[in-house]
Amino acid sequence: MRVPIPLRGVLSVPFRVFGIRPSRMNPNTCTICELMFTRVMKARKVTIDATILFADLRSYTSLSQSLSSAEMGGLLDSFYDDCANAIWQFDGLLNKTIGDAVMAVFNFPIRQEDHARQAVLAAREIQRAFYARRAEFSGPSDGTLSVGVGIHSGELSFGEFGRSHRDLTAIGTVVNTASRAQSAAGAGQILVTQAVYEQARSELPDSTAREYELKGFDAPVRLYAA
Question: Is the CB of residue 146 less than 8 Å from the CB of residue 188?
């Protein structure tokens, strides 16, 4: 899995003939990574230490009532592009686009000692890029169009799940917690868990924390504003 493969330029042509091209999850890796579980590792899933990021576009549904389908499609395309570029910039894997939200994995397949910090930096870039172009979209948004982000780190399962329909993704409490943190985030806010804070403390010197009642959790979860 560490053999270098040309992904661009003339040298990439022979590989493209065999279907080996940049992955849509991360263009810095190739499509072999998407097949690694059954073809290379002989396993359908692995346990890894990773960071999960969820980003959600807020007020998308309400705004759809005042914009055309083409305008809404352009808004969503721009949001996806901004998220993808930010995630790839910090070597994350854009794992899923779910309606008006995205899910990213850091520390797989590209290993990163500081994956929690990279996720925080990616989240900030998502927010910066989104607000830089928000004015492009017309309609009575009145500042309500925004992005909320949640991040959590820990041990999770990554691989192919399902039988009739196989899905290459991450599952586990870490994923659920990151998703719930994203739901709790306010407009333009990034919320990270204690695990992320401890690993990315250098990026969060002035971060404040409070306890949140997250759906599905028996006890309050401590989240930090990043």
Answer: yes
Q: For residue range 56-68, what is the model confidence (pLDDT) as tens digits? A: 998 777 776 777 7
Which one, of 25, 44, 38, 30, lies nearest residue 1 by Cα?
A: 30
Residue 82 sits in the same domain as residue 160:
yes
> Over 50: is that where the pLDDT of 6 sits?
no
Q: How many domains does the chain have?
A: 2
Q: Count CA within 13 A, CB hemisphere, residue 75.
A: 29
Residue numbers of the domain that contains 123: 44-225
Query: What pLDDT is recorded for position 12?
Result: 44
Do 106 and 14 fall into the same domain? no
Based on the fold, state whether residues 14 and 55 are members of the same structural domain. Answer: no
Cis peptide before 109 (omega within 30 of 0): yes
Phi-psi region of 116 (alpha: psi -120 to 50; beta: other; left: phi over 0): alpha
| Same domain (yes/no): 99, 186 | yes
Same domain for 110 and 194? yes
Angle, alpha carbons 201-172-76 (nearest 5°):
75
Claim to verify: residue 77 and residue 20 sit in the same structural domain: no
Rounded mean pLDDT, 99-126: 94
More confident of the two residues 70 and 218: 218
Q: Is the domain of 199 the same as that of 170?
A: yes
Residues 155-206: pLDDT tens digits?
999 887 766 666 778 999 999 999 999 999 999 999 999 999 999 999 999 9
